[in-house]
Amino acid sequence: MNGETITGVTTFFIDEKIDTGNILLSEEVRIMPSENAGDLHDRLMILGARLIIKSITDIAENKIKPVSQTVLLKSGESPRLAPKIHPEDCIIDWNNDPVQIYNHIRGLAPYPCARSVFKNELSTHSYKIFESLPEVKNHSFMHGQVISDGKNIIKVACRGGFINISSLQLEGKKRMSTVEFLRGFRISDYSVPVN
Predict the structure, then answer these.
(1) Pick the CATH number of 87-184 from 3.90.226.10, 3.10.25.10, 3.10.350.10, 3.40.50.300
(2) N or C: which end of the chain has fewer CB within 10 A?
């Protein structure tokens, strides 16, 4: 969600505080630019399983020396926390730039998913976005304005560009590609409310 490009897996001993124990082993992983949280989770799960087995083996063979987490921090750096995600954290802020919004969407996909609403004078439709592409481009559209050809494209204007929606799910409906969605939803008179 924050646009990080590196993550990793770490094994550590449990102590009296949460996530503060001494580190046993760790391995860095590059986050791919098009990867979402689910894809990354699956890669880390496999790597994490291997790291646990290696950690247990090294402990049993007395080959490992636990290291304090503070030793691994650069001067003046503090550990980065991964706070719990609340429903309000899933709402897209269309005032952000396309890359920020894109990272927000992929950081929440496939669960719990970034959310927004399509709104016109008569109705409001809540939806989740599963896949998107950022488009950095100067434009004169209002943030939150929906642009569509009615057949293949839905994009939402934001600061400095657009978010092209590739797959989404209206509340109470199944996940669909943009093409499938536009077959049954007339989007031309809708916009996206901006915070």
Answers:
(1) 3.10.25.10
(2) C
